[in-house]
Amino acid sequence: MATFLYRLGCLAYRRRRLVILFWLVLLAVLVACMTAFGGHNKLNDEFTIPGSESQQALDAMKNDFPTAAGTSAQIVFIAPSGKRVTDASFADAIKKVDDAAKSAPQVAGVVSPSESGLVSDDGSTAVTQVLYTVSRTELEDATLTALEDVTGTAGKAGLTTHVGGLAFNGGGGDGGSVAGDIVGLTVALAVLAVTFGSLMCAGMPLLTALTGVGVGVTGVLSLTGAATISQTAVTLATMIGLAVGIDYALFILSRHRSQLAQGVPVRESVGRAIGTAGSAVVFAGLTVIIALVGLAIVNIPFLTVMGLAAAGAVMVAVGVATTLLPALFGLAGERLRPARDSKAARREQSMAAGIVRAPNFGERWARRATRRPLLTVLAVVAVLGLAAIPATSLSLALPDNSSASSESSQRQAFDQISETLGSGVNGPLIIFADTAGSKDAEQATQQIAQTVSSYPGVAAVSQPQINAKAETALIQVIPDSGPSDEATADLVNTIRDNASALQHDTGAKIKATGTTAVQVDVSEQLRAALLPFTAVVVGLSLVLLLLVFRSLLVPLKAAGGFLLSVAATFGAVVAVFQWGWLSSLFGVDATGPVASFLPIILIAVLFGLAMDYEVFLVSRMRETYVRTGDPRGCVHAGARHASRVVTAAALIMIAVFASFTYTDDMILKQIAFSLALGVTLDAFLVRMTLVPAVLVLAGRAAWWLPRPLARLLPDLDIEGEKLHTAADSADTSTTTVPVIGQ
Predict the structure, then answer these.
(1) Looking at the whole model, is its pTM more than 0.90?
(2) Domain 66-168 carries which CATH code?
């Protein structure tokens, strides 16, 4: 692997203008494809599971009850204090709004408060239901805006109006923040400038990372015309692509600068940097890709697309780091070499000459961590274990309008309905009954409605609607609880558990459906897939790490440390988003369940990123161990060489992820918060503290591999041992013909 990448780096160096032109042409082609075939206007944020009971029922309803099969909106009317919405002037204004809503774009029907009975007991609030035949994601951009516009009549009459409902469901944001992106990039630039002491060196990782993100994201957006891709998938791909793109370039550039400071010629240094650090980048990228592609195991389309989009961004980042970056090295030439009298040059020359100078901060930290390794291990495990305690209260659901910004119309509508009419009105359930096997459809549906009304957690049941052929019927069920509450999921399961008994009594086959039931199905499938997903992803990545480090303990330690950091991250997510601790600091104005797909996303992404740091740090330790055989000294030397880069990489990732925590999109906010915190815990507590302690505690056993297994496994040479051997031969040879890179 190292030899192949060495040759690739030398090729990119020699053909640098052609390589740069290739990436520019590729980006231009993808931008053209995005413009012609896709774009942001074709993104689809609908959460569904094709083939699930709720989705099957919705599909069947499209023929017999098209308005009930689509999404719906709500217009909430609030009377002034001391007055009632049923007063003549207000009732007239509501009727005018309802009539105007019937003419709004894509509206299939309007159910007035008097028809639905959605008028609060105190007369302060009334709700009009607006029905569409299409799903929320099929609504045109101007549709909901037009609905908001028709409420002006009520406002003039003195009524306060809010527009919300399922058509507005979600986190309530635009999926990202330009200001946040700029802050993240600014912090990244500052960290890189401090790390390298050069603006040219600082700008190079940003340039390559932005190129990679541009290629990756435009590639994803080019497919929106042919595949269902969500805004969250695009934003996740942007976050991951930007973070790993900067990190991978940083790691390779750091190795290149180190070699230049030791006096290695530019061309040779480029090849060696790609052959050694590039090998670590390739395998670190593979762990991230494996984890993200593993999201397909869950078998939920929108989650699969999210994983594939982010994995594609990582793949592009690896490609850019191993081809475009060495081409830019070629353009920069000697300008990247540290000045002879610079601190960096003196440090690297001393290391190359074997002169032990005062240890840097990373080595000092590693020495402290390994002075009493057992105590360090126990302390880190205790801290992360305590932080993980709140995770035992983790509650999962898909976000609804209760998690939208408190200033948004849909959130205000949701809160008003919950307060005056009951939270269940915000997320009604629908029972779809196939009455073809019933002797009397009307009698059967009445019996079903009466029976369901007796179930715990039911607030109200509507009169059944029977289609013209008397073969199917709809019954609306209003729960006592909100759409994201556990009690609502329990009610859905109760209805399904009693479906067989109802069929026996009435001859009708029933299915629980509606948007709320779909969300329950998605959450339950995600919860059920969490353990097998984790096992498969971690298992495959452990095999990859076994190949990379040729050690049994290193992969097991890497996985164990990851589980500690992810558990602690879950604990913090629960504390902030469910319990409300420090919630105002992160712009969380309402607590509630965590997004049901967050655990799987967090495990996939954080595991990949944790293995990045594992590879970056431990590869330098193993590289030293292979050459010296000193189990304690290799840990300190690896920390001396790699900790500065790992620290910078972690700070950059934290800055990039944290910049997305101030979006209004609650899903994205939770993902960004968890990733930023997860990287913090894993990089600094696990990789830079726990890992050195465990390796020193294990001694030579840390690098042990049974001989039969060692013979079976291929030697991937990630540390570039063959390159070092060839370079040493070249240095001692009297010939002027180079040994490496001929």
Answers:
(1) no
(2) 3.30.70.1430
